[in-house]
Amino acid sequence: MAVYVHSRPLVAYVLGALLASVAAQSEYGQCGGIGWTGGTTCPAGWVCTDLNPYYSQCLQDTSGGTTTAAPTSTSAPTSTSTSVTSTLTGIAASAPTIGPSHDVGKLPALGWNSWNAYGCNINETKVLNAASQFISLGLADAGYEYVNIDDCWPLTARDASTGRIVPDPSKFPNGISGVAEKVHALGFKFGIYSDAGTATCAGFPGSLGNEELDAATFAEWGVDYLKYDNCNVPGNWTDASTPPGGDWYNSNSAIRYRQMTAAMNDTGRPFQFSLCIWGNANVWDWGARVGHSWRMSGDSSASWSYITSIITTNVQHLDSIDFYSHNDMDMMEIGNGALTIQEQRTHFAAWVLFKSPILLGTDLALLNSTQLDILTNAELLAFHQDATIGTPAAPFAPTTGATIPSLPEFYAGTSSKGTHVFIINTNSTATAMTFDFANVPGLGSGSFVVHDMWTGKDLGTFKTSYSTTVDTHDTAALYIEPA
Ligand SMILES: *[C@@H]1O[C@H](CO)[C@@H](O)[C@H](O)[C@H]1NC(C)=O
Ligand SMILES: *[C@@H]1O[C@H](CO)[C@@H](O)[C@H](O)[C@H]1NC(C)=O
Ligand SMILES: *[C@@H]1O[C@H](CO)[C@@H](O)[C@H](O)[C@H]1NC(C)=O
Ligand SMILES: *[C@@H]1O[C@H](CO)[C@@H](O)[C@H](O)[C@H]1NC(C)=O
Ligand SMILES: *[C@@H]1O[C@H](CO)[C@@H](O)[C@H](O)[C@H]1NC(C)=O
Q1: 214 noted as active-site residue
Q2: Which candidate, 80, 144, 163, 210, has a CA 20 to 30 Å from the CA of 457?
Q3: Name one Pfam family in it (predicted).
Q4: Catalytic entry in 299, 328, 330, 386
Q5: pLDDT in tens, 60-112
């Protein structure tokens, strides 16, 4: 498998005993990169390989070498570290500028993706089971719609005569079109995965340079949604510095994605386009001109630290969120790992209040009734899927003079129903949390009925302020109307 190693010096160090107690990441899983908060060790025989500043991945060790990892950093890469004379101006001058289809993707996607549940170990049965479970578990009635396959669906080689990507017949005996047909017959939409590089993260064919052929193939198969990853990018397609004019829409990274947008448009089939670009290249500034949603970071992990770090990142880019324009906080981890039920509520509530795509990432059969109640909560999903107000909730200062921390706890937002307040307790103990109604944008002073969106029950009528004890790492979700 050819792996492009970023031209930035590969800083490798032996992790040794330091991380001996940390569980290894999965094969082809993420193990480092800017903003990465998960584990950095790989299974035996696999090596943490630095693909670019944002992404290190467990790849098969072909050298018999030591376990290495990219150093992680919370700061952006400096734009002056490498001087590259790029042909950016020339490419940017001729790159397509066609936008994404607005027949789809107005609201953030609701669905399921195979990766967090199965990684590379996917097949038709598992995908169709997820579709059936949408119905049997009440997820379809709640609005879950997309059934999406991630990496590892094809053979490693394209068809020698047609050049097309070939579905792996041992995993998908009826091809991808066969799966799409069954998913459609159940009433859902179907998504697939490719990569804006020469190979996917797991080493299967990428679409860079084959955009027209691959988009036509996906359209012919009946694909409705494309997740487009960012691994194995040739050196001349990366961005070593700020593009001329400072507009990242004209960066090499953006142009790789723009080529696929144009190719999808040429098929005549509306695709929902998910840019899996890891928060690279200031994507929040131009993502809506190219796709419907864009990843804000490296891969999610089932950890409280991931949830808090992605919230901290996202609150800096709330202006980018509206209809057809969604910051993607990555796939859900409810059902995976050791998140407490309070943390799982906060995970869901945060994706709701920021209007991130919500793609479930577990074997749905493993979800218990408490988890399903969270994921199908009608009032939170109504905020997320509001067809008349596309903007997210935003942080506010709960009392006059209070400051908003970098990980805000109080958020207010508007739905077509009215005003909502969300309170995240980031403290490690249950905490009484108070806000003044006059501090909530749009409310003013007076008496208000406070309603609990989780239970669907009114909590009473309150004057001036409202105070509630929020459990550690839990989120209160409130609807507030004048009394
Ligand atoms: C292709 O782009 C044109 C021009 O923006 C637009 O009218 C049309 O709906 C697009 N078609 C698809 C399938 O995206
Ligand atoms: C998919 O994998 C499961 C579990 O390993 C197996 O039971 C099933 O038969 C497989 N289906 C296909 C189509 O290979
Ligand atoms: C990178 O090189 C390939 C092969 O020469 C070329 O087709 C492509 O346009 C180049 N990309 C950029 C951004 O210059
Ligand atoms: C479901 O699992 C969570 C832990 O993820 C647990 O807190 C909760 O009590 C469980 N609910 C039921 C009904 O077993
Ligand atoms: C966390 O709770 C403790 C005990 O109530 C309190 O003293 C502390 O100020 C709280 N910290 C934050 C950040 O809310």
Answers
A1: no
A2: 144
A3: Melibiase_C
A4: 299
A5: 776 543 333 333 333 333 333 333 334 446 789 999 999 999 999 999 999 99
